[in-house]
Structures are given as structure tokens and as C-alpha cells.
């Protein structure tokens, strides 16, 4: 047996994540590895915290990247905050709300589930009713940007509602950080987690988290030990706490952190609000193209994520065949539907470095070509012009 080096093809990643990684970030990750307690690396850690605080729009001292993917960021929030017997109202409108529920249960908490249809945002009225029925609930957990459907929920309103009932909030911002409006301090979000591989254009494997003062007090005053040693913020904060003296906790993924640092520098250079605007503008162009083709969105207008566009598959079209052809012929990756929406929708990501005018036009052209070949019931020859008109109007 002789195994040789793995050389992947160059793909255009327009699925639900990861997104295309910017060459600057790949170059940063190729820089020399130094020790995770090296004074220069410690200085970079301090810069990383400042950059993450900028991205989250927060001054929370406990803001750091967990050394694992976004799912570990989710678990970090739940295992540190939820103790056995705690009631947590969990909003489910897709896959990741379901995963929140699983985390509550595994932490020993009691999950009070608020259900909304897949493709719909979280309904604040249902959450209000859940609090009335469970006045002793300690937390509200919801997904701001539900990646499985492309639905965007109102984090500001939901947080205010929870605080009105004396509860803290845990927010999933894996797909929203850097791509949609998110204001941790202004909205009063208590605990939040994200991922490096979506709108930040970094490689998968890191999960930015941020805990506000009220959440930190809960962590410090737990009656029971955090069930995960690795994710215990009481221990991790001694490594990421600030200053030059750090307590060893684990060997940080040094080169991956170089990449995230570079990604956050690029976000800073573009400007956070400019990044939000770019994602929105390119979504509008892609939307115009889809609608010209005759495709309809799953999520109602006004609740759509600009960076995750879910559209219904035309009648009689084979989902897997289209995605397979796009990948093999055009090196273009798009996402399939999950759960109840499997085989019914496609998910087109416009995240970070993948969110470009070029990719909007490329995706529409490739999709129209494949659907035309399959004799799908679409409107031909109009999608590119519709998208181009929006791009020109937005100054691209």
C-alpha cells in the first residue's frame, strides 16, 4: 500500500458552511508555529479578544475562541450555565434548536420546548406564553440564524422578553456573526457562541464565545461542578484571562488561531457594518436571480438570512442529481435540506469570502444550466440580468 499526499480540488463553497477561506487566512495559518505560552503568542491572544469583542459588539471580559468547532461553543454555554433541575425554555425552529434541547437535557436541565415551523422565525408570543406557564425558568435559548432553514429570529426582542421574566439568554450566532446585525451589549445578550467557518471565512475548528457579567456570576456560583473539564470556563478563563501570566489549560490550536486572528483583522479592516451590508446586498442580487428563475424562498421576506438562502426545488427535479452535477461539473457546492425539508429545498450560502458578486452570477448561471439540461420548469435567460441589475444598483 502506498498512500500519497491529499490534494483537494479548488471548490466554490456556497453551501451552509464552511465558506471559502480567504488566501490571506490560509497564508496566516502557514506561518511558523510557536509555543502556546510564548509571550508573543500571549500578545496575539490579547489582540484576539479585542477583535472578537469588536465582532460581537461587546466589552465582555470573558470573550474568547473555544478550541473546537461551533458545536463545542454551544456545549460550552450550556454546561457552564445549566445545572441539574434548571428550567430552560428552548426555541425550536430547525436542527440547531433541537441540538440546544439535547444540550439542556445532557446538562441535567429541564427543557421547555417552544416549537415553530421550519422556515419560520421564533415567535415571541409563544415564548411569552412559555414564561407565563413556567415563571421559574432560568434561561431562554434560541438560534438567531437557523442554518438549517435560513430563518433569522429577532434576538433583541427575545432577549428583552427573557430579561423581563428574570431569565438569562443563550444565543446561537454560528451563522450570523460577521454577516448579520448582532449587538451583544446593546441587546443585553448574556451568553453567545459562534463558529469560525461561516461569515468569518476561516477554517472550521474554533468557536468564539462571549459571556456577560450575569452569566459569569452564574458560572462562579454554581452548586455543582461543570460536567466537562475541558469546557469549564472557571478553568479556561485562567488561560485566556488577560495579562502575561497564564495558567496552562490545554495546548491551543496555534496555527488555527493565527487564521482566526487574520480573519478578524480582515473584518475590522472592512468594517463590521460594511460586512453586514455586503451580505445583504449580495443576497438581494441572488434573490432577484432566483425569483426570475421561478424559484421561491422557504422563509418569509423580512425573516430571511442574507447569508443562507433556502429555495424550493422545482417540481420533478432530483435534488441529489442537481447538487452532484454542480459539484462534479462546476466544482460548486450547495447545501441540501435537512429534516422535514430534506429533498425539498436547496441551501445557498453567501458567507464571508464566498459572498462576492462573481459567486452570485456563477451560482445562478451554473444552476440554470443544470436545470435547463434536466428540462425543469424554470424561466430561462432572465436570472443573470435580474441579478446584474441589483448588483449595478448597489454599486458593484
TrEMBL record:
* Coiled-coil features, chain-numbered ranges: none
Tell me one GO biological process term: glycine biosynthetic process, by transamination of glyoxylate
Q: Which cofactor does it need?
A: pyridoxal 5'-phosphate
GO molecular function terms noted in the UniProt entry: alanine-glyoxylate transaminase activity; L-serine-pyruvate transaminase activity
Q: Which residues carry this modification: N6-(pyridoxal phosphate)lysine?
A: 198
Start and end residues of each Aminotransferase class V domain = 44-337
Write out the residues that bind substrate: 347
Question: What InterPro entries does the annotation carry?
Answer: Aminotrans_V_dom, Aminotrans_V_PyrdxlP_BS, PyrdxlP-dep_Trfase, PyrdxlP-dep_Trfase_major, PyrdxlP-dep_Trfase_small, SP_NH2Trfase/AEP_transaminase
Q: What keywords is this UniProt entry annotated with?
A: Aminotransferase, Pyridoxal phosphate, Transferase
| Family named by the database record | Belongs to the class-V pyridoxal-phosphate-dependent aminotransferase family.
Q: What is this protein called?
A: Alanine--glyoxylate aminotransferase family protein
Q: Which organism is the protein's source? A: Candidatus Methylospira mobilis
